[in-house]
Every structure is written in structure tokens, then in C-alpha cells.
Amino acid sequence: MLSSVILFPALLNGLMTGAVYALIALGLTLIYGVLHIINFAHGALLTAAMFAAFFGYQWLGLDPYVAAIGLAPLFYVLGYGLQRFVIGPAAHGEDRNILLVTLGLAVVIENALLYAFRADTRTINLPYAFNVIEVGTAFLAVPRVIAFAIAIGVALALWLIMRWTDAGKAIRAVAKEKLGAELSGIDVAHIYAVTFGLGTACLAIAACLLIPTYYVNPSAGNAFVLIAFTIVVLGGMGSVAGALLGGLFVGVIESLSGLYLGESLGQIGIFVMFILVLLFRPSGLFGERA
Amino acid sequence: MKGLVPIVAVVALLATVPLITSSNVVLNFLVVALLIALVGQGWNLLGGYGGQYSFGHAAFFGTGAYVTAILQVRYGVNAWLGFVLGVAAGALVGAVIGALSFRSGLKGSYFALVTLAFAEVLRIVASVSPITGAGVGTLISLDLRPMAFQFQNRAPFYWIILAMVGLSLILIRMIEHSRFGAYLVAVRENEDAARSLGVNATIVKLCAMTISAAVTAAGGCFYAQYFLFIDAGIAYGSWISIEALLAPIIGGIGTVLGPLLGALVVKTLGELTKIVTGGAPGLDLVIYGGVLILVIAIAPRGIVGIFVDLRGRMRRSKAAAPASLERGHG
Do B246 and A107 touch (CB under 8 A)? Predict the structure, then answer.
């Protein structure tokens, strides 16, 4: 057994990472919960947002956390447009075609980035990237603490939107009963696009939180996709609170299994847990029973 | 045996290619396309006929490839025997994953995700365990004898993979017209209804998954023999899971010839875009992805679907010509 001097920082770091995972998963769970599709383009869109945040800093000197304010609406529009004018019309409403269209989109986005920026891996150096905050025995990097706070804040905001606004109510109505929602006058194609836009906006913010401590190259976003799916399933498909809890949980599991099994096997902990949850409790650890 | 005629015709036509050209470029292209057709045919049985979309056929492909390679390299087993054992191991992995998922009642996206996760676990395990060569990969030593399943030129490889594709076509065709095939389609269309009529849906899906895994594993075994090198990213990487579902969906899901047509079209498209863009990194795949979206938008039921529509339209216009009475007949 490791002493708490090592365990406690690992736990806290896991929570920090988990919050950003949760944000990526939030986008996915929204799209999944409403459109019932596996969005293959999620990773590629995250990469695109990371590049946007990177060049925002490199060319305009924009602090990534400030850039998030501009990038979130920009990516909302992008996501809205993609669903409304590309995915929706091309898929003819069939699940397997939606899957293929998002797969095609992922290929296009990822390789357009590869063509434009080559395969180089880039990082940014924020002046305060190596500042730390001391919490008990643990030293936490400032960017990770900021990321944690913003991710939790966004999750909360999203939860409020879903709970109290008309758009949120419409989204939940479409998720529950598409035909019924359509009959009561909700424009389903519009709501689909709004959902996709919200999910993509979450990615834009997540990208801004990742870029100070992570790197970006044309396939950087893919590393997060399967983790995000794990979280979505853990938290129960379509559940905002579940995605947040699931994200934190997965962050901790990854951090701890990395500690005990070593870096390369660390991710196995996530996938084994993922499979076990799928097999024995597919409605998720925190979700309602289906 | 009416349905066998097109299969025999297509295979016979393709079999003549090495007699016409000995170009390695052409043969290599066709070998890879046929390999994808075989892997896709495996996916098609489970996904197309059974309606169970797997995102993790790499699990079977990789198992076949690794078992074949490791048996030869580490245990000196004959390549052909290794091939058979590789297929068996792939089928076993399919049966185990199938039993676990179907007994838990996983369907739709949940099934897709659990297969994806199994493939990822296998990939990570293969990338660190010593027996698979970990990060270095496994290299089958060169031994150009037919006994070792290696040949001086590409033509024998080509005929072997073509024969395998031919066998898979006949197999799928036979299943399509069997009682088992009817059960499988019934489960796809409405599992509850099928169950209420006495079909044991779990067993039917499990059988389909086992056969599907075996066919895909055969592709993996062939890959190992043909390229003589595999690592975790090749064997268990998501690229093969995607190729496995792309070919049948583009070609025509749940049809006998769909995966073969789809594989040829997808691979041709890939090569064409590579030529057009002249090696600018990424640009070929941008076009490839764009065309892919267009194909899906224009032909949602695949290439076979276009032919079926065309034939239906021709029949209808023929019927309409003498007397336009047969409304609602099509």
C-alpha cells in the first residue's frame, strides 16, 4: 500500500484531469442522449478547437482561458451548421448513415488539419504554466486548477440550461420522445442542430482548458474519445450530472491505476471498468435504470 | 443454385487478373482490396444480416494475425496449421465476447461500444506484453516456400485471398438461404417478435458472431502471412474495425456481394485521391472523406441498393408502358 503522501496528490490530480474529461464527455452525452448516435467526429472537432486555441495564443496572444469566451460561440455555430446542413441531410435519418457521415467528417477534419499544419506536435508556454498551489501535501499546477473550476462551472451552466430554459426543455423532450415533441410543435431538426452545437461548444471550452498543459497535433483529440465514451456510459447516456461525476471518477481511476500498474497500462483500468459496467449495469453507475 | 452464378462469374473474372498483368502495383492493390472484402464480409454477417453493429472487429482480425505469427515465430508451428489455429482463436474470441455481451442483453450502441472497448483492451495488452513483441511488433522470418505459406511472387497470394473471398461469398449465400439465416434476419428486424415465435435470439446472435469473427480472423491470418509483420496498432488498431464496416455499408449492407463491391470502390477511391493530390499529406484523405459523405448522401443503401432501385425502376417502366394500370405494384 502506498502512503497517503503519494496517494493524496494522485487523487487530486485525478480529479483535475477528470473535470476536463467530463467536459468532453458532456458534449458527447448531449449529442448521444438526443440524437442517439455515436459521434465519430467528436475527437476531430476537439482537435480543431485545440488548434484554434493554439493559434489564438500564438498569433493574437490570446490567453486560452479568454479565447474560450470567443471560441465557444464560434464552435456552437460550427456544430449547428454541421448537423443542420451536412450530417442531417446526408444521413437521411438512418442511424448507420449518421455514423458513417460523422466518420467521414472526422476523416475530412483531421486530414485538413494535417494538410494545413503538418504532423508537428505543438505546445504553448503560458507564463504561469508552472506556478503551483499547495494543498496539504499536494502541489497542483495552476492551469489544472483553473481548468477544474471552469469545467465544473460549465457543467453547472449546462445543467441549468437543460433544466430551466425553453431550449433545454425542448432538447429533453426530443431526447425522450421525438415524435411526441414534433407533434407538439418542436422543430426537431433545429433542436438536433442546437444539441450538436452545444456539444461542440463544450469541446471548444475543453480544448482551451487542455492546451496549456497538453500538446496539439492533428490527431491529438482522438486520445480523449474512448475515455469520453466510457464516461458517457458510466454516467448514463444523456445525463449531465452523470457525465460530470463519471468524468471525475474516471480521472481518479486513471490516475490510481497509472500509479499501481504503470503509465502504459494505466488506461486499461478505464477500459476494464468500462466493459464491466457495460456488461453488468449498462444504464450506468449514476443513471436511471433503463 | 441460381444465386451462385454471379458469385462464380465475379470470382472467375477476378481470377484472370494475374494472367493479364504481373504488375505488382495492380496485384498488391487487389490483394489489399480483397482482404478488406473478406474482413468486411465477416462484419456483414453480424452487422448486415444480424443487425448487430460491431466497432471492434479488430479484436478478431488481430487475434488471427497474432496467433498465426506467434505460433510460427515462437513455437515453430507450420504456417498453414498456424493459419487454421488463428481462425479458430478468432472464432473463440468472438464467441467469448458475444456470450458476455448478448447474455447481458447489450444492443445497438451499447454493443458497438463494448466491442470497441474489447478491441482497445486487446490493443493495449498486445502493446506491452512480451509474447507479442510489445512495442517492437512481431516479424515472421522470410521463408519463400509454399509449405511456409510464402511465395516468390504475388500471384499465389492473390489467388489464395480470392479463393477465401469466394468461399466467404458462398458461405454467406448459403446462410442467407438457410433456416439460421432466416432466424438471424428475423432477430435483426424485430428481436422481441422473433423471440415470441420461439427463436432463441441469444444463440442465433452468438453463432453469427462466432462465424463472423472466424471470417474476419482469416483476414488477419492472411495479413500476417502477406506482410510478415504486425504490431499492436496494425493488428488491433481501429483502422481495421472501420474498414470492416465501411466496405459492407458502402457496398450494400446485408447483401452477399456488398462487401466485395464496397471494398473495391473504397480502395479505388483511396488510390485515385492519392494520385490526384500527388502526395500532399492529408489532402487525399480530405477528398476521400468528402466523397464518402457524398456517397452516403446519394446512395444510403449502398451500391447494391442503387442497382436494386434501377432494376425496380426499369421493371416498373416496362410494366407501365403497355398499360399504366399497375399502380402500387412496385
Answer: no
